[in-house]
């Protein structure tokens, strides 16, 4: 008979399954893991005896068979004797789990016809189920199996069986470690490694957060910031065994974990560990043999009295550690020179001081004697120590790993070591890493292989870091950047780095280096590299730094060692040197391409403050400015902190994107940018003492404008803003912000009275033909106009709308009475804060802005800040607003009627049919689709020859109208409420308050629109947003959907300009957005805000309110290495030509009024999702500090001037780029990208 003795460990709940079999079958046991991560587990146990079993609930059956601390009967193992009892248990008990063991042979089972207990024969499979309530369910169940007949203990590969029944609590894991490190009296390196072995699986299960904690813990240990010996001694063989076990386990995580982040942190952790293994007894006996062989006194044995060796011998016996390798190296240096200065020098170089070695529990206080005869034995002993305590050190790693590789690779590795400083060493190192990769990834490969790979990675980084970057040519910088990115991509822990490396390789192998076309491609690739480096660094800092500070607080580590811990981790990575190369290469590319003279390191939407000129930031470290400040710093060293109160830092120097100051700027939300143009910088200096608002244009330039032009400047900086105008006339210039409040009468005044009279009957969903300016916003009205006026080759997505007053009607429903009451109180408080504006109350101003830090802070009299009130209002609407009865059916019917969802609500059309109905055979006669007869297209009408491709568009999963908790409806209602809640955005509230818009008249309609799965998204201005010139189009395009444009996501879009004089279209920039957003599988709808308070005369309210997809869009990293927009010049030109034609068509549809157009390109077709009259205020000013952009872009002007002079060269270079790369699948003969 076998019985299972379960030993709970840290807590879990699970299922113990027991089965019987005939005596002819061998006894066996098996562990059955649960199929999913739930609160359950199973272990199968077989019995070799056919005798009658003990009845259930008896001591023999339960208490002795299953040991558990849960003694109440409710927690006792239960043996069901009938299916009815099993069903009853499943219905009444807490979540349980059962699993079946491996099926037995039917004949064998039948042969054992012995009654187990009344009604059940022996041989009948049965199980024991442990039921744990949620509150006491343990995380893990650890147990062994004992076979009583043979007295054998069955284990899992030498260890206890372990069942992970629920995800580990990371907080408990962290707290347990901190308690041990900070409070245990007896603790040391051996205990730490043993605890790592226990917690490693739980850390992996916790993902990046868990594994980054393990990394932080062990890095602090390797830096000797945690105690290695605290009232505890251990033998060398114990510590070397523990080091080996930890290294092997972490190697396995780095090689085979399914989570790339876990693999990355495991690899980073291994790089700071000792390899372990070796011969621990040789450490203990080796030093004794040296002392005895050379007549040195040891203990009571007589001989030469050498106190240093005796003290070192005691340390080696009781607490050997990696520090002993350093001591051996320092000792050898002294033995060779007989100079104690060499002893102290080597110790200091390796991080050991006199105070440290004298403070150990086995201190070393004596200086070594000069015994040169000990050089050979100490050299050998030094190697013994290295084989145990060294890790990713190149010489040791190669020696230990050379037996695992083929002879040819082994020869090349030794050749590299012999010529490690040769000029060709960086390239050779990367080549050998590529050859070594299959060995490292092989299942069960040795830890020494991965340690060798880490050592090679670090060595390549060191070789590149040693280079004098300023003395290198541009070509050398390009080649080195390729090596650095290839080195980082080989780790296989980041899909983004692999894509970035591939893109840079495509740039590196392109012909015509340093032509304008090549520089544009290289600048885009470098911008993408910079974004990847920034994201890599920021992610590490966000995970690692909090843990380091926790250790500092709980373990008494001085703040000086934890303050910049995460930044030191970033700088220790092989990828860090890429930021140094990028800082040197970027200005050279910008100069060669005639691109923007600005390097934006940390970007914000708008930064407003007083301009202060400083030589640097060092002189103001620790200073807190009492008002928002824009600092113009002549130079930055990279290690400065951003002072409190600073909203922007502009500098003349190039800034490393991974520097301390860059990381601080991104963390604090501070604009940080460098200017390489002397004239632009001089103009900024002239603004000292003035209040200025800074924004970043899509071209990458930093625009400075007076605060009263903030809204207009933001419009110029982000021309892709999501908004519409209420009429077809050009929006007037100017802004009411900062000036006298205008008296606005908002459209749709009749809805409030109608909603009050009709009550719930007011609720309705409007179809497109019902869109009118008194019931919906301009966004919906303009779409309805576009469908009627645009040529057939331009698509317009279908949509429906929840009109003005819908929110107020929903809020008035009795089910939302409590929400309505709370919102009314909040609005009254907000009105009080806004009303005090005219009185100039400082307290009210602080309340409106949430205090100096923008937090929800109190003001005089206990008033609550506007930030807190607005946040509470949004929370109420987003999370507590409930749909009235029948709302779900109403919305569903409206969507089905428009063909946006499949259903029978008055229409059987599907989303696919709704799009197909808009598709007709396109004109193929070459005539222009625009009604304008004077358009000079220069052959651009070729885009009309495109095929009428079928377009499959889905709008999300089907609804179960009868189920109020239907996930599809829940997601739709959440998006609708999110749009309504955006009325209380802080920015929108401040804007309305500043412009004097009447809050009681503001109405928000919700436009429910199909999200087209665009391959590219664009924004097009039919008049120049910079000069205001009519017909001079400016456009931007990104991969995926336009949210990366309107949302100001990091990176630059493809940008171009086209003049109506027939001159060559000018390509200003190629795309470098870090991520693209794409429609999820199955499609989705988007709830778009559409208010009556946008784009009024003298007021630009675009982008103040939210648009929310029902199903979140999927972020992906674009593969720019094979992206046709980058490399297929012919495709790109046809696409942009078609976009220009689209601009003329849309402008013509609105009586030749300049338009701000948003749309997508999908399946060979253009679609317009929004168009509004273009706001011209910020760009048509005089350009001086009082009315226009105070710092115009010299880079953009140079780009325009270069267009005519370099037209022929650019065309030839573009053609060469297309012909040379990037290989198969890009603009090839498949016809995929044909028009």
TrEMBL record:
Organism: Tetradesmus obliquus (Green alga)
Compositionally biased intervals (Polar residues): 16-27
Domain Alpha-glucan water dikinase phosphohistidine-like span(s) in chain numbering: 597-703
Keyword field: ATP-binding, Carbohydrate metabolism, Kinase, Magnesium, Metal-binding, Nucleotide-binding, Transferase
Compositionally biased residues, Basic and acidic residues: 1-12, 51-66
Name under which the protein is recorded: Pyruvate phosphate dikinase AMP/ATP-binding domain-containing protein
Record's subunit section: Homodimer.
Top-rank taxon, per record: Eukaryota
Biased composition (Low complexity): 85-107, 919-939
